[in-house]
């Protein structure tokens, strides 16, 4: 039962509250007119509460959508910037190799190792950035889930 959905729980609570209130009203010794007035008031209260919950859920949904959009934009920007840096470095190495046709094998090996190291470092940075953004988003989601 640990997998109970929050939405189902809220709906069950709301229905249970309405049934309980209605039962209490019917069992109370009141005249028909008083009972109808009480039912009308309770219906108005339930309508107001439902409207508040709906509005809150809509606002939270919009907030989460904008956060997700912002985070994905940041990730895309970071990946793009680092991809451009890698592409520039590859062009630089290719240019160096082309210009130095008489380079020794050792020079080429050193350039290859430098490029490989920079590619690994760049990949690590992208990975760390994406992980950080996703972790931050998960933390915010869990906090909001607890508050809702």
UniProtKB/TrEMBL annotation:
Origin superkingdom: Bacteria
Ranges of biased composition (kind: Basic and acidic residues): 117-148
Keywords carried by this UniProt record: Membrane, Transmembrane, Transmembrane helix
Pfam families (alphabetical): YtxH
Location of the region described as Disordered in the Swiss-Prot/TrEMBL record: 115-148
Keyword DNA-binding in record: no
Transmembrane segments annotated in the record for this chain: 9-28
Keyword NAD: no
PANTHER family found in the cross-reference section: GENERAL STRESS PROTEIN, SLL0268 PROTEIN
Protein name: YtxH domain-containing protein
């Amino acid at each position: 039962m640990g997998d109970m959905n929050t939405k189902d729980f809220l709906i069950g609570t709301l229905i249970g509250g309405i049934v309980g209130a209605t039962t209490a009203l019917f069992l109370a010794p009141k005249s028909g007119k008083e009972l109808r007035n009480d039912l009308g008031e309770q219906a108005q209260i339930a309508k107001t509460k439902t409207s508040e919950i709906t509005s809150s859920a809509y606002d939270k949904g919009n907030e989460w959508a904008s956060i997700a959009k912002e985070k994905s934009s940041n990730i895309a920007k970071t990946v793009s910037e680092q991809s451009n840096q890698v592409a520039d470095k590859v062009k630089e190495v290719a240019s160096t190799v082309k210009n130095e046709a008489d380079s020794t094998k050792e020079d080429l090996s050193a350039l290859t190792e430098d490029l490989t190291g920079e590619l690994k470092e760049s990949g690590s940075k992208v990975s760390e950035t994406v992980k950080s953004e996703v972790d931050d988003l998960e933390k915010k989601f869990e906090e909001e889930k607890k508050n809702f």
